[in-house]
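Example 3.2
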Amino acid sequence: MDKREKTIAFVDGVLDGIKALPHTFEALLSHIEKNYGKKRYAISFDEDGRKVSESYREMAALSRDLGSRLRQILGGKPSEAPVALKYRNSPEWPSLFYAILASGHPVLLLDARLPKANAENLLRQAGAIAVITNESEPFCVPSYRLADLKKAGPGAEGPWADRVLFCSSGTTGDAKIVVFDGERAFAQIDSARDIASETQELVYDGPIRNFAMIPFHHIFGFVAVFLWFTALGKTLVYPSSMATKDLLYAIRKGRCTHVFSVPLLWDGVAQTIRRTFHLKGEKAERLLTSMVSWNLGEIPAKEAGIARFRFVQRLIRGKVLGNSPRFCITGGGYISEDTLRLINGLGYSLSDGYGMTELGVTSVELSPDPKVRVLGSIGHPLHGVDYELDGNELLVRAPSAHIARIVGGKAEKNDPTLLYRTGDIAEEHEGRWYIRGRSKDVIISSDGENVYPDEIEHYFKDVPHVRNAVAFGVQEGAKERIVLIVEPDIALEEASLKALGDALEEVNQGLQGSRKVGEMAVTSDPLPLANSMKVKRGAVRDEYLSHPENFQYFDGRKVGRKETVSFDGFPEEEVKEMISLVRNCFAENLSLPPSRIGDDDIWNQELGGDSMSYVSMIADLDERTGLDIPRESYGKVGTVRGFALLLLTLRHGSPVPVAPEDKQE
C-alpha cells in the first residue's frame, strides 16, 4: 500500500466502526473511552508555560462523574429542559458538555463572552433551567461553576439526553436557536469519508495535534476541531488565552499539526509578517517575496536564490507558526487572496472551508496545489452533501442539517433531506465552489455592479490604527452609497483622527469607481462582534441609520448633522442655469452621464473623483464662467450645489460661504 491507500484504509476503518454504533452522544463517548483511553486527549499550559496533559480516559471519567453530580443537583427538573454551557475552550469543556447530556438534559451552547443580557435572552427563549459557567455573576436561572459540581454529591445514573442547541448572539427578541441530535453528529463525522482520497494531510493514522482556538459553541469549532478529531482519538491543544502572543505560543510550543481558525487570526498573522519584514529592510522584504513566489511555483530556482532552501524557510516559519503545521483551515468569514497567498507562500497549507450553524461543515478545499488554494475556493461538497444554485444563491442538502429551530421561543421542525437556502451568493467553476458574499449584504453600485462588503473591508484592514472596520450600503434613490465605519485603536483626538482619515482616503482613491467608499465615519465604541469573531454588519448599519449622531467624521463633525446650502437672494433661473453648468462640468471630468450626478453627491466620496481631476474640473469652471475660484476654496467644496453657490457668490461680489457638509475632504 502507498501512503494514499493506507490513509484511506485508516479513515474508512475508523468511520465504519463509528457508523456501526448507536447514533447517540452517549455511544460516541463510550467509543472514545474504549478505543482511545490511554491516548493524550488535551495539551494545555500552566501559568509558567509548562505543558499539562490529559488522557481520553480522564476526560470520559470526569464527564460521567460530573453528569452524575449534575443529575443530583437538578433532580426533578423536566428532562426536555436544556442546561446551558457558557464556558471558554479549555480541557474541561468536553467533560462539561458530555456531563450535561449525561444528566439527562439537552445542552445549550453559549458564547463564553456573551453579555449577560444577551445570554439571559437566549436562556429564556430556549427554556433553560440552569447554566454551567466560570462566571460569578447571577443569571435568570441557577448558575453552577465547575467547583460547585465537584462539591455536589453523586447521583444515580439515568438516561442521557441527545440534543445540542446552537444559537445566535441573542441581541434581539427573535434570537435563532437550532437543534441537532446524535444522528446529525454521526452524519457530520461520516462526511469526512472521502477526504483521504484527495489529501493525506488532513486526516491520517498518526499523531495529530489540533489547535483548539475556535470557540466550541460555534459550529466551526464544534465540528472541525472538537467533534471530528476527538472521534478519531487525536489531541487538542488549548491556548492559555486569546491574546495573540498566547495563541502563537500554544501553536509553536504545542507543536500543532492542524491550525483551524477564522480570518481574523490569519489576517493578523499576515499583517504582522509584512510589518516585521518591512522593518527589517529592503533585503528582508525581497527574501520574503522570493520565498512566497518560489513556494507558489511562480519563479525559477535561480531567481528564488537562498529563499528556496529548506533551512532558510524553516528559520522563517519558526518565527511564525513553527514548522509543525501540516493542514490549516480558515472559515467563518471572508479571507482575502493576499492573506491566502502569503500564508501558503510561507509553506503552510491554508485552505478555505464552508459551513453554517444550520448545516454543520459542508466543504473544504483539499487541493495539495497552493496555486489552487490561494484562489479562495471552498472545494466541493463533503461526502453525502449536495450543492445547487438558485440564480446565484447557494442551496445545500446535508445529512448533518439541524432537525429543528427555535425562533422567538417557538420551535419548528426542519427536514434535513430538503435543500436549505443559505442566503450566500456562490459560483461554481470546474467542480470547485466559491462564496462571494451574503445576498442581504450585497451593495448595488451606481453602475449596477455587485459590490461585496467583505472585499471593501479588506482594502482598509492594513491601515495603521484600524482595529475593526465594517462596510455596508445605504440606499439613495436608485443607487447605494458605500459607508465604511471604523473602530480605531487610538484616542479620538483631532490630529490623530485627521491622519487616520487621510490614510483611509489614500486607500480609497486607489479603488476603482464602483468600489470607492462614499462615506467614512468613526466610532468610539467597540464594533459588535458575532460569535466574538466578525463584526455584525446589520447591527452597525441599523445603528448608523437610526442614531447617526453616535458616529463622527474624521474632521470631528457628527454624522447626520446637516446644514443646507441656501440660494436665498439669487434669481431662481440663474440658480438653475448655474447648477446645470456645474453638473455638466462634473460629468465631463468624471466621464459620467449628468443624470448620475446628484446635487449633493461629494466629488471624491460618492462620485469617485480624485484630486487631479478635481483641479481640472475647477479650471473648466473658471473658463466657462469667466470667474476665478480662489485657491483657499480648493478641497472645501465638493458638490454641484456647493460650487453653484460659490460661483454665484463670486459673480455677485458677496463673501464666500462654505457649508460644513459640502467639504470635498
